[in-house]
Amino acid sequence: MSMRGFWPAVPALLLLFFFFLFPVVRMLGFSLEGGSFDWYAKALGEGLYLRVFWNTFEIALLVTFFCLLLGYPLGFLMATTTPLWATVGFIFVLLPLWTSVLVRTYAWMVLLGRNGVFNRLLIDAGIVEDPLPLLHNFTGVMIGMVHVLLPYMVLPVYGAVRRLDPAIVAAAEGLGASSWRIFWRIYLPLTLNGIFAGAVIVFVLSLGFYITPALLGGGRVIMIAVLIEQQVRETLNWPFAAALSAVLLAFTFAVYALAQRFTRPQETA
Amino acid sequence: MSRRLLVVACGLIYFFLMLPLLVVFPISLSSAPYMQFPPPGFSWQWYERYLDDPQWIEATWRSLYIGVSTAILALALGVPLAFSLVRAKFRGRAVIERLALAPIIVPTIILSVAVYGIFAKLKLIGAWYGLVVAHTVLALPFVVLVMMAGLRDFDRGLEQAAEGLGASRWQTLRRITLPLLRPSLVSAGLLAFISSFDEVVVALFLAGANMTLPKKMFDNILMEIDPTIAAVSVIQILLVSLVLVLIGRFGRGLSGSAR
Q1: Does residue B79 carry a pLDDT above 90?
Q2: Domain of B53: which CATH number?
Q3: What ipTM does the predicted assembly reach?
Q4: Res. A158 pLDDT band, cuts 50 70 90
Q5: pTM value?
Q6: Omega before B38 cis (within 30°)?
Q7: Contact yes or no for B237/A99 (Cβ under 8 A)
């Protein structure tokens, strides 16, 4: 094969090499300091750190589940409604997506705090007597993360439902199938690819989340990214941070590789 | 019947999505000296406090010019890369495409820590152009995705017609190709700008004492919940809305680029 047309790619490749590939590989190298796997043994062997990995995995799984639960109906409605309503729907999904994560995190603190909007309303309405603990815990992190990642689920689902041939649905309707039956037998199986794509994106992005757990977790919900940041900035333990990063990266890539293996046969079918 | 149920459920989910954006508006206009809801009265005090604080203003300017520089650099590097990936056929094309999109998948904390290690050695911590370089790595995938989509839909017959009529390759690029790609270029540039303007994790590590707007917000949120943040948030939401309107008016559909 010729190299024609390759040269325009060179400047971008230089940037990616010097400020992405090289720094990441260099840092991961620190984890093998002294030629031993001691830091990996610490990351994966000590209960405290294993607990953080497990927490991260659990949160990512739950966030993916809730994003699916809320994202599917939204993507489905946007894909099957009139163009005008679809546009309105898009605005309501894209506006939060492009609003700073910090703005949204701050807003959730205002809404969920001890003296926040929700607790105020609940107490004033006489539903609860003491403020509910909604912030600086697991609940707060879940709400914040689902909010940030929901659009990443809605858009692939929307795309999948749009690609579906309306003639199939029309045929089923013509044959007298109920709308539930049409959903279970046609929409759901034929949009599995979109669901899967969205779920993988949400899951992988959750694994590396930093801002939301750092601010809404209040130091009580430690995810792997928060731990890495602490190791670098507070304890200056680069080799350990590097080992944690390597494990996180390996896991992220493994999920992707697995996901691609799963989707390929469906695409060709 | 079930359709109505779906519409009601989606109404609630949209409410969940928009609620955090809406709640900062009343709080930013509150006359209370601290966070209080509902606000006891109306005042512009938090906007005044933002505008009168040189630290906030300086951070805002810094974020603006870092964002603009990032958009320019990301376009300058990403557009030629997208041309290569769509139009050229060379060994390793698929690998390069994966590398260019990898910054989306690789957790930002890992990129931040890694670049921090290099920049500390180069004494680039706190330098605004250091942040531009790091933000460009993060913005590049957006530019490449949008431009590749634009180039795939491009009718190359128009270029062949121009060249057939005697235009040089440079003239064709300047007079035909780039003007026809303008919507994609606008979207790619604005997305790159927003991705930098909102970015906080990299800035946390690389900005040093020279605050960007998101870093200043992060520090403030960590310290105290002061309604000044609500005023800053409103300004940011309005800015993002403006950018989305610009993309809608002059750019190419967003849904593809966000995947």
Answers
A1: yes
A2: 1.10.3720.10
A3: 0.88
A4: very high
A5: 0.90
A6: yes
A7: yes
CA B77/CA B81 separation, integer angstroms? 6
Choosing among 1.25.40.10, 3.90.79.10, 1.10.3720.10, 1.10.268.10, the CATH entry for A37-268 is 1.10.3720.10
Look at B89 and A91 and tell me if their CB atoms are within 8 Å.
no
Kindly state the tokens that stand for B193. 């700008």
Nearest to B150 by CA among B82, B73, B74: B82
Q: Please, what is the angle between helix A238-268 and helix A192-207, to 10°? A: 180
Contact (CB<8Å) A156/B2: no
Question: What are the phi and psi torsion angles at A153 (to 5°)?
Answer: -90, -40
Instruction: Give the closest-approach CA distance of A20 to chain B in angstroms.
Output: 7
Residue A200 φ then ψ, to 5°:
-65, -45
| Least CB–CB distance from A93: residue in B17, B99, B107 | B17
Number of cross-chain residue pairs from A and B with Cβ atoms under 8 Å apart: 252
Residues 6+ apart with CB under 8 A from A36: none
Q: How far is Cα B47 from Cα B98, in angstroms, rounded to an integer? A: 44
